[in-house]
Amino acid sequence: MADVVVVGAGISGAASAYELATAGLKVVLIDRYGPAAMASGWTLAGVRQSGRHPAELPLARRAVSIWDTLAEQLGAPTHYRRRGNLRLARTPEEWASLAAMVEEQCAAGLDLSLLDAKQVAALAPAVSPAVLGASYCPTDGHADPQATVQAFVDAAVRAGAETRFGEDVLSIDTAGGRVVGVTTNAGHIPAGRVILAAGVFGNRLLGPLGLSVPLRVRLVTAVRTAPAAPVLDQVIGVANADCAGRQEVTGRFRFTGGSTEWAGEVETGARPRVRPPTRGVADAIRLFGAAVPAVLDAPIDEIWAGLIDQTPDALPVLQQVSDPAGLVIAMGFSGHGFCLGPVTGQVAAAMAQDLPVDLPLEPFALARFDRWNAPSEPMTLHG
């Protein structure tokens, strides 16, 4: 019998399995595909504090303090680079929006500044001279999503975790008001606790339990180029969040455009694939190319679409529920959960062990949606 089954091997699930295994628990990590097969692998992989909702900021700041030594902790490269985040203003309206954000986040204690066009050019010459200015957070950065998730998985296995990849969880099983395991397409796995970190597929398992996380699934186009000469250190976003991007340590540009509604189609195989619309690809190239013109000279290697599990307030659900007892939900990260992964893993693992958590988690309770009547928050891809 497992102590804990973790459903979903994205960064949240993999980090949870690592934390539990290193604490000496018997852990089974299950994913219908494999590590970082969906959102955690499709992401831009920014590691940022800037531009976050105040409720998420304590988690992001804690996470950034972990990222700096995470590769050493896991014994494998994450390719993390702390080179800053620039959020560009292209219009007077965007400049006003950035100025207000900088003032608010500086008041919250974040190291954030407002740069004019000359300062942006001095810091990041690859950025278009047409921008009016930018916000700059020097303690933000980026990492490699596939390498990071695999590092968590491998470290969890070394600590004793069992992995079951290519196995589909069909139900979370309960008896007497508490979790007793999961059933997969290969059989039943008894366990006293379950952490559900299954992203857009999580509600399929919550529904039979009388639970649901309100999600609006959005599709985001992503483009990755062939290696190019290194010209960009920072993660680049824009004030209205219609594009974002960075240059990887390999020299490849990795960038995204805006979001559209998902039609519900996923091509399945060894790894899932979602095809973006042609218009989305064109928009991503046009928008990020206008921000960082050097990207327009780089040959395109890959195009894909990522799926965003967005909640109405664009904040995740991170909670140990009481009915059924033994279930922890970690879902709805709304396109900005990669940075939080190391902390999400600590929090979910603590909940699964009935341990206290020294972070403010009230904003992430599922019950906040019981009387929700406000408009949904817009999609925000800040990098």
Largest sheet: 8 strands, mixed
Return the string of H and E elements: EHEHEHHEHEHEEHEEEEHEEEEHEEEH
Number of strands: 18
Could you name the ranges where pLDDT drops below 50 across 5 or more consecutive residues?
Answer: none
CATH superfamily membership of the largest domain:
FAD/NAD(P)-binding domain
Which CATH class of the largest domain? Answer: Alpha Beta
Structure write-up:
The chain is α/β, with parallel strands linked by helices and 383 residues long. The protein folds into 2 domains: 2-63 and 145-213 and 312-369, FAD/NAD(P)-binding domain; 82-139 and 216-310, D-Amino Acid Oxidase, subunit A, domain 2 (D-Amino Acid Oxidase, Chain A, domain 2, 2-Layer Sandwich). The protein contains 10 helices and 18 strands. It has helices at 11-22, 39-42, 57-67, 70-74, 92-107, 117-123, 145-158, 202-206, 278-291, 341-352; strands spanning 2-7, 27-31, 46-47, 85-89, 113-116, 133-137, 141-142, 162-165, 169-175, 178-184, 187-196, 216-225, 235-238, 244-247, 253-261, 300-310, 317-321, 327-331. The strands form 3 sheets. Strands 1, 2, 8, 9, 10, 11, 17 and 18 form an 8-stranded mixed sheet that branches. An 8-stranded mixed sheet has the order 5-6-4-13-14-15-12-16. A two-stranded antiparallel ribbon has the order 3-7. A hairpin with a 5-residue loop joins strand 13 (235-238) and strand 14. Helix 1 packs parallel to helix 7. The longest helix has 16 residues, at 92-107. It is globular, with a radius of gyration of 20 Å. The relative contact order is 0.21.
